[in-house]
Design a protein that fits this description.
Elements: H1 9-24, H2 33-38, H3 43-59, H4 66-115, E1 119-126, E2 132-137, H5 142-148, E3 172-175, H6 178-186, H7 193-196, E4 197-198, E5 201-203, H8 209-212, H9 220-233, H10 250-256, E6 260-261
Parallel strand pairs: 1-3, 5-6
Antiparallel strand pairs: 1-2, 4-5
Helix pairs in contact: 1-3, 1-4
Length: 262
Amino acid sequence: MACLSSPNSPRIWSGFVQILRVVCSDAPRLPSRMQCKHDGGAMNTEEAKLRAHSLLRQAGLAELPRPVLAGILIIGLVLVLVGIWQFWPRANADYIATANQEQQTSDVNAQQSASTQVDIVIDVEGAVNAPGLYTLAADSRVGEAIEAAGGFAANAQPGATNLAQKLSDGEQIFVPTIEEAQGATNATSIATTPSSKQNGKININTANAEELQKLSGVGPALSGRIIDYRESKGRFSSIEDLKEVSGIGETRFENLKDKICV
């Protein structure tokens, strides 16, 4: 039935119609081409009849009686119409189903694209080399935003910023200077034990000399060097930085690392 919807369908219809005209006509079966040429305006009709007779010869139907031939052609037309009647609704239904499926797929893709945020905009301010607005990936962290802003400035206090914190769109990051961080520490009662102890560990960034001396192997001289280092270099970024203090080697650090924090 696929042939019924092909571009040749109009030719098939035309052929049937011309053959019916020939069968039902009282004209001679095989008019000569010379007669067709002398007929003037009727030439197209005569040529159509010749083509119809040629089709009949090729099909082996030229010698059949006209009533029989007409019956065969009518049956053929009926079969063609039945085929079209059966094929057309199914083809139309397949087309509609395909179009609906493509539309649903397009809608799903559009929803997924709308729900997935690719970038976020972050405002980085304070002690960084290039403050301003930056566009980052949606899963970025504070450290990546500071890196995008050119990194910490020379007077920045890195330990005051949580570099691992995840970012959200429209968030502002402020990196304090050393002076700003120290001012905030002085304003929040640095002498209290909660600020110098966390989970039973001594915070080497906030502990005073007395608290540092509670650590095994740390006396007045070593605690003084720890405080001097902290005041001259800034906060310890990690407990490993404690090895930079004179008098704390690898062995002593191994004894202290489970008792200290930053």
